[in-house]
Amino acid sequence: MSNTNLSKKTLAVLLAAAMVLPAAACSPQGTASTAPNPDASDASEASSASEEETPQEPVTLSMMWMGGDTANEMFVPMLQAWNEENPLIQITGELYDTDSEEKIRMTLASGTAPDILMLGHGWVPGIVAAGDYLCDFNEQDILDLSGFDEAAMKDFGEYDGKQVALPASYATITLCANLTDCERLGVEIEDDLTIDELYEKGRALHEAHPEAYLYIVHEVEVWELFQMLLKQEVGGSLFNEDYTVNFTQDQLEKIYNVILEGYESGTFQPLAEAVASSPDGACLLNANWVSGNGLMVSNASGGIIYSISFVENNEQKEFGMFTLPKLTEDNTFGNGVLTCEKMWAVSSASQHQDQAFTFLDYLVNSTEAVDFLQGETLGGVYATKTQFEYAAENGFSNPYITEAYEKVISRAQPVSNAISVNTDLVTILQDELMKVCYLSLSPADAAAETMPLLESKLQQLQSEANA
Amino acid sequence: MKAVRAGNARRRRRHQNIGLLYILPWLIGFLCLQLYPFLSSLYYSFTQYNILNAPIWIGLENFRNIFTTDANFGVSVKATFLYVAFSLPLRLISALAVALLLNLKIRGVGLFRTAFYIPSLLGGSVAVAVVWRYLFGGEGPVNLALGLLGAGPVNWLADQNITIFTISLLSVWQFGASMVIFLAGLKNIPVVYYEAARVEGARPVRMFFSITLPLIYRVLMYNFIMEFIRSFQDFTAAFLITKGGPMNSTYLFALKLYEDAFQSFRIGYASAESWLLFAVLVVFTILIFRAGNLWEFYTGGGKK
Question: What is the CATH number of domain B45-303?
């Protein structure tokens, strides 16, 4: 009897185990070990061979993009038109979710990735570090790269001298100010501000109108502001490629103090109150911003239109775009944040790389592509000069997004290096910053707690990289 | 005689084969979707693996790092235990209370059973999470109701001391599965016991503690263990409503495991975490069994 009970319990425990563990193991089973690591040169030779023999039979390439229904509605007709005009290069498209990094990794590792890929900018360093999964655009002469801004192209997509990805668009993070309500509440904002000027105006506003705040920041936005200010303070990326921290504890404490002053001066709405005042926790639905008692929000350019659309009576109001604040007036490092949310790449396992470059040339350089893609799909401005100008001339560009881009481009901060966007390091900084913002730790204590955590994580990352 | 035995053996084998054929779909699913990932995750837990590169064997390094270098491990364990401590009793009590009500002979009880089960079907959805955010938002209905009662607004989703309780409530809402099992247990209790108790003058509370509870003990244990495991694995509410915040106060272990696996792409590390969770659940399950044996009720001889 006791044996039966025991075996039942053993069975129960094993079944419980079976319920718990598959979650962590639902990765592609053995894909990395069984899939051949793509060899770019071999694939390139194969494609060169195929180019010499002009294809008589149509080749079919696959392409994936992200962006939801709006993107789908624009890419599908574009592909239909392309396929009709180019019977020898047929493209099949597939919409991926915007959070598809895991899926992309699995398809790359298993050699089943689409020929043409749309990648998140933050995904590329991890893919590049793992092997030659992406083609080097410098190694081909089919796709014309002259339309891209050379410096920006290198900033976004060049790793170890290889241009493995191309910006699909440029986005910015800027301050969007509700100028009509600024005027109503007696706040004058004519030009970009330093952080001191911002706090001075914020304090005056909150003292005169306790229900109002100059700058609405939630967790994401305060992190972006903190990161931008710390980069100004440091004058470069936050971490070095040799796995060391590029700032001192004092510098970190100083920026924590700057952020804390934002709350103490009444410029920022208290974080807990701000998060609670939005039905979905996002800044653009913050009740103060919607009602006109929050005068500024910061946005990636794709979000500007949405932020404005949620403001009550927005059609009767005027909005202005400004760069994020300078740490000091004489800071020359740059306070504009230029980003590239989506990038184009070609899988090195593709059997039709030349055809992929041909199509991408149409996609990033032709004005016909802009006719299909129009203005909002890419969440920013077109990355090549031809398309940028054509979109502006034909009214495809959103004036606010263009204004934000033009403000930022002349004073953009250099893009962070790969190690500085590592998820684990970013998480540590974000967690510690939240302790300051929620007034759980003083800036000094937070800085003292942060440094050893970062150093320990960097050591771990280095040993993993060496393995 | 031999021919009869041979015939019986053939028949048995044929029956076995038919039985195997019937369970083949389940067997294939179990082997491919349960056992293989189960064993794979054990292997990955001793490796460094990021999907793109082949796994590299690193022995116990992942387990060592969990305890020595992972600053969020302790935070996550604390949040998970708090979550289990809030949600598990609330969910069981709610399920039992509603099952008791539905066990009463009332008209349209089938409709009520369905109605109470529906939240279990909807519970983990994005839509419900959005509704939850709305209900507990700064100016949401819950705070408006508190205002009518003269109480001040509460930061249900942004106060690190309260939010874990708020998301626990979402799981309580999904008590349908336990409720149905409790109901089945209640239906199995012979009515004569209650009739005898009533004749003896027992009140409902006494009948509940002296008859109902002992006789649904095994059902209670089953629900307790299943809900206990489920609570440790809960992910949706923290992921959809709070994203682990504020200040990681709702950073449940399952959420950490997910982020380590699919945001940081440290599959080996996340596998080690899942085995750790498994070990904790095994230990607690054994302890619950042992503790349960002390209270188990046997009709033949009272307490064991």
Answer: 1.10.3720.10
